Amino acid sequence: MYRRSFLCLSLAACGSPRTTTLAPVPVTRPAFGDTDPTAWGGPGPARYPVHGIDMSRWQTNIDWRRAHSSGVNFAWVKATEGSDRIDPMFSYHHDGARAADVAIGAYHFFYWCGPPESQAEWFIRNVPRRAGDLPPVLDLEWTPFSPTCTVRPPAAEVRDRAARFLAILTRHYGQQPLIYTTPEFYRENDIGRLGAESWLRAVARPVEEVYPGAPWRVWQYSSTGTVPGIAGEVDLNCFNGSVADWKRWRAARSIR
């Protein structure tokens, strides 16, 4: 997400505590590569068994069945940005992943020069409520290279806008979105105060060192990954927990 943008650990606290029945899909171990690997000084993300990716229009040709067999167990695909932009590859990615039994969800890239209500409405208009999909994600980052919007609202305003967006999507999809963010943004805006599950970027040091004491659900550990079945580089992520934790989380947090 980070390099492509311009364009609570309690399940009950972060969404409906009810569970839904999902077809049993085996979890596959990652067979990923990296064009710029990090020396973690330990097991790093390899200690976690469940891995996945996120992508946008920059990934084009994907053999989803091969990617799944190579360790892509989940994927979030960019759907919308601001109040008027949709990723042209969204439907292709979503439908291909779902057909290959990859757990799939959608994310929205937030635009700081537009109201959260119109952005939430735009996301809802373009992302159907599909039973079994992963909860949506709100991507919060600064946009210093944007050609149209480089503003940085104060932290209290950032959290207020994000909370309003989250509330609208939670009502519509029945699941509170996760928040994806970067070290700088997380620190400057005290994002942990929003109480949403966190998807945290940390590609040079372990996530626990970059966000000391912060709970997290997903860790984006590379933006230069390579995956069999996917042309070019792709973002790599891991889920915080065991295979059993993943299955419980997915059952509780999938859209119904």
Polypeptide structure, described:
The protein is globular and about 40 Å long. Helix 3 (116-126) runs parallel beside helix 4 (155-173). It starts with 32 loop residues before the first strand and ends with a helix. Residues 3-17 have low confidence and may be disordered. 27% of the residues lie in helices and 20% in strands. The chain has seven helices and ten strands. It has an eight-stranded mixed beta barrel with strand order 2-3-5-6-7-8-9-10, surrounded by four helices. It is an alpha/beta fold and 256 residues long.
Task: Provide the succession of SSEs.
Answer: EEHEEHEHEHEHEHEEH
Question: How would you sum up the major sheet?
Answer: 8 strands, mixed, barrel
Sheet/helix structural class: alpha/beta
Number of helices: 7
Mean of residue pLDDT? 92
Helical content stands at: 25-40%
What Rg do the Cα atoms give? 17 Å
Report how far apart the termini are. 26 Å
Please report which band the strand proportion falls in: under 5%, 5-15%, 15-25%, 25-35%, 35-45% or over 45%.
15-25%
Number of strands: 10
Which strands sit side by side, in order, in the main sheet? 2-3-5-6-7-8-9-10
Q: List the uncertain runs.
A: 3-17
- Shape summary: globular
Main attributes of the structure:
alpha/beta, 27% helix
Task: Chart the SSEs and their pairings.
Blueprint: E1 33-34, E2 51-55, H1 64-69, E3 74-81, E4 85-86, H2 90-99, E5 103-109, H3 116-126, E6 137-140, H4 155-173, E7 178-181, H5 183-189, E8 198-201, H6 207-210, E9 218-226, E10 234-239, H7 243-253
Parallel strand pairs: 2-3, 3-5, 5-6, 6-7, 7-8, 8-9
Antiparallel strand pairs: 1-9, 2-10, 3-4, 9-10
